[in-house]
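Write out this protein's structure.
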Amino acid sequence: MLINNFIKQFFKKKSKKNIFILSGGKSIKKIYKKIYNLDIDWDNSKIFIVDERLIKQEKNLNSTLIKKIFKTKCDIYNLFENKVKNSFITKKLKKNNTLAILGMGEDGHFASIFNNSKKYKSLINLKETPGIYTTEKIGKPFCKRVTMN
């Protein structure tokens, strides 16, 4: 209930677009289903998938889960599939109502950011310009991933 109220208040401003930055995974699935049913201006909304596994098995992609839940309510951008540019993301984040909701894996990783990643320090550095990163092969399944800092 608290999340529902927060999201409704957050996206009340109609003058701007609504940007959701979402990660995948089982830990967050129930929350996404609740968000889907909220009275939000979905025509004025976009979803950016902040983490994705770079694998060919569609059933194991985070974008498959998110697209299944949100269906065709709004535009969904997979950072890798859509070749989204850093400058596009940065502009969208600054100009619009932006809300990030990130799940956490059993091993403590979030949004494909693992504490034993070679890029960990730059991915969590608040002074870094927001951008899109590809990680080394890491996690389960053991594969490269796309994320944002």
